[in-house]
Amino acid sequence: MELKAILSPIADDLRCVDDLIRQRLTSEVALINEMGNYIVNAGGKRMRPALLVLTARAFGCQTAEPHLLAAVIEFIHTSTLLHDDVVDESVLRRGRETANAVWGNSGAVLSGDFLYSRSFQMMVETGRMEVMQVLADATNAIAEGEVLQLLNIGDPDVEEARYLRVIELKTARLFQAAAELGAICADQPPAVRKQAAEFGHWLGMAFQMVDDLLDYTAPPEISGKNIGTDLAEGKPTLPLIHAMRHGTEAQSGMIREAIRNGQLERLAEVLKVVESTRAIHYTAALAASHADKAHAAVTGIPDSPYKETMLALTRFAIERDR
Predict the structure, then answer these.
(1) pLDDT for position 225
(2) Which residue ranges traverse the bilayer (predicted)?
(3) Is 185:196 a contact under the CB 8 Å cutoff?
(4) Phi, psi (rounded to 5 degrees) for 93
């Protein structure tokens, strides 16, 4: 099922979020406006804003506050993407040239800084200390995850636990924050906020694992990025970690060398080992187990179209092809 159809119960909310994003991207600096429009028009799944709005509506919030915080979450996410693309020297995202490929590294980094600082301006408008606490903790965790991932690049000795810690910080933490903020918008007590946060955490973990396996399975015309990008960047993601752990000594040695040197020319060989060791199956199964935990975290919420959409997202996260 297409994501747009899944999110139909909050279609009007998401249009409001998009309108707010465009309004708050405006600046006196022409380059920021130009890059902002480019970034917004690049699309994206808007998973994190959708998660925040869904959680808020599922817990009974009927105000417009989720729109503001959903835009904040998207600004934070987009700023990390801008910085990521510079660090990774990426040239393609969502089937289009990255901002750094168009405007250079300096423009991309500084525009990311603008989005990040604008997000903090906006979150202050809520006047809720708990909102600022959740987002401050989340952004700090994301930065830690980015640094940890940087340390992992080119290191074939990264183990599964270290990989999981990276995606917990780098990806799942913002999903977690989005869901918890939805519960805060609905003025829910700490126990319910914790339940919402757990849903976001497990969903984010599953989502990132699938992203990492799609790097070895999804054609560029579907995924919007080149296959084997993680290998080219020397990133030891779970499919490679599993393949090294279960391949022959020669196969493991070949993958280790490819990770150390970012050898995309050895992609075909790597893919054969990934397939023979069932690394994609292993990654998909682990992602599914995390999605099941996200599903379980939602079961106690009162029935509504929003709850059904949250449950549908747990399936979408692991069944998608892009």
Answers:
(1) 57
(2) none
(3) no
(4) -145, 130
Of residues 213, 136, 228, the one with CA closest to residue 167:
213
Tokens of 290: 């995390």
Measured CA to CA, the distance from residue 142 to residue 105 in angstroms comes to: 20
Top-confidence residue, 103 or 173: 173
Q: Give the CA distances from residue 46 to residues 88, 134, 140, in Å, rounded to whole numbers and listed in that order.
A: 22, 19, 21
Long-range contacts at 62-65 (CB < 8 A, ≥ 24 apart): 63/185, 64/16, 65/126, 65/185
Amino acid code (one letter) for 256: R
The confidence score (pLDDT) of residue 196 equals 98
* Three-state secondary structure call for residue 43: coil
Q: What is the pLDDT of residue 86?
A: 80
Helix axes 99-124, 65-88, angle to 10 degrees: 150
Name the token pair of 316: 């979408």
Global pTM exceeds 0.90: yes
User: How many residues make up the chain in this entry?
Assistant: 322
User: What pLDDT score was predicted for residue 92?
Assistant: 66
Q: Which 3 state secondary structure label does DSSP give 92?
A: strand
Which two structure tokens, joined as six digits, stand for 202?
């497990």
> In the chain, what are the helix, strand and coil shares in percent, each to the nearest 5?
75, 0, 20
The domains found in the chain, sorted by start residue, are 3-319 (1.10.600.10)
Alpha carbon separation from 47 to 54, 103, 138, 247, 259 (Å, rounded): 10, 26, 16, 35, 30
Asked if residue 148 lies in contact with residue 168, where contact means CB atoms within 8 angstroms, the answer is no
Alpha carbon distances (Å) from 86 to 81, 100, 109 = 9, 6, 7
Identify the pLDDT of residue 95. 65
Residue 31 has pLDDT above 90, yes or no: no
Helix, strand, or coil (residue 154):
coil
pLDDT at residue 203, rounded to an integer:
98
